[in-house]
């Protein structure tokens, strides 16, 4: 049994962090163990949960002007920030309760947590001793979670004026919160786009691995594909996979006058050409959609498909290995959810196999795409 030692010398300022907008990633080699069985997955999960909870608690000491400065914003919607913080705390508590069920097999990072007050109490004093087995992980993890929290709080501070995946507008939207512990759904944005496109490679890899994913496509890209090749070819590409829509073109659906037509046209095309693969899901580009759209989506029988684990692999923000390690760290933190890759980026051909290999013995499961957003 290894114990986590506390020490009082760790007084690093919450303010000494990266500039707003820097994307969080964590070198998983700083963690001293492989995720070779479900118990070791839980050990790593408890560690990431406690570290994020520590950073989240520390952030609550910032008043509104300090938070705005921290996030690089002029104004902050504190009601939205507080709502997101509350939801984060509830999920952390739920996740820690799941993660501590294996404490009789390995007591590392096991503390008495019975409710939210005791979780906050443990988060307040959570620090890693210099002689700990996990000391090489501690500071890189703290930096990761501080940067990742900044990402979430910045989106919360702008919500709902600038909509994103950080929060939902109603039950017609899904983001992975409802999934069972240890279950994850693979999703891919920008499928079937013009070159470069890795859709064929990814779908073949998934089929060989007995996995499925949900691919979100633009109507205009499917139309362009059909002008070049047969319907049968497109159907073969997406065999055993699911296809939802991102609209007719990749642009914000929050202020676009023709947003309803964009979705209707895309749904009609995909439903007609890929009837075996179509799922009634709309993924808003960049997460931007209208707050008053519930009636429209319900009339169309379509759900908004958000995500809660973002690879941040679009536009080359992270290298493939960094993106994969970010996803794995967030899988340990959130323990279930919807993973969002960008199939345009070549990095997906490195990140996805690495992720599948790293978690092969960890006791997690991959949700079937047909039931992922139910």
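-> sequence recovered:
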């Amino acid at each position: 049994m290894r114990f986590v030692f506390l020490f009082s010398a760790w007084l690093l300022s919450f303010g000494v962090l990266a500039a707003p907008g820097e994307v969080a990633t964590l070198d998983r080699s700083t963690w001293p163990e492989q995720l070779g069985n479900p118990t070791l997955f839980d050990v790593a999960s408890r560690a990431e949960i406690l570290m994020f909870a520590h950073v989240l608690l520390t952030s609550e000491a910032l008043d509104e002007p300090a938070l705005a400065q921290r996030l690089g914003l002029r104004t902050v919607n504190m009601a939205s920030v507080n709502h997101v913080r509350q939801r984060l705390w509830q999920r952390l508590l739920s996740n820690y309760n799941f993660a501590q069920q294996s404490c009789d097999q390995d007591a590392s990072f096991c503390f008495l947590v019975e409710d939210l007050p005791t979780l906050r109490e443990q988060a307040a004093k959570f620090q890693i001793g210099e002689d700990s087995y996990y000391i090489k992980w501690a500071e890189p993890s703290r930096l990761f979670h501080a940067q990742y929290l900044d990402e979430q709080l910045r989106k919360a501070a702008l919500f709902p004026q600038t909509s994103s995946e950080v929060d939902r507008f109603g039950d017609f939207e899904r983001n992975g919160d409802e999934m069972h512990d240890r279950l994850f759904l693979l999703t891919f944005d920008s499928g079937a786009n013009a070159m470069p496109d890795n859709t064929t490679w990814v779908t073949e890899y998934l089929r060989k691995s007995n996995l499925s994913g949900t691919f979100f496509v633009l109507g205009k890209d499917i139309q362009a594909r059909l002008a070049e090749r047969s319907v049968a070819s497109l159907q073969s590409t997406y065999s055993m996979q699911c296809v939802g829509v991102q609209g007719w073109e990749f642009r914000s659906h929050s202020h676009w006058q023709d947003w309803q037509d964009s979705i209707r046209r895309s749904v009609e095309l995909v439903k007609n050409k890929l009837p075996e693969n179509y799922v009634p899901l709309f993924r808003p580009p960049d997460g931007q959609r209208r707050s008053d759209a519930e009636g429209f989506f319900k009339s169309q029988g379509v759900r908004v498909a958000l995500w809660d684990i973002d690879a941040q692999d679009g536009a080359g923000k992270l290298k493939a290995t960094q993106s994969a390690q970010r996803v794995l760290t967030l899988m340990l933190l959130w323990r279930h959810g919807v993973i969002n890759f960008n199939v345009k980026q070549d990095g997906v051909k490195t990140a996805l196999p690495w992720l599948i290999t790293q978690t092969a013995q960890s006791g997690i499961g991959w949700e079937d795409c047909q039931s992922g957003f139910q």
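The first strand starts at residue 173 and ends at 174.
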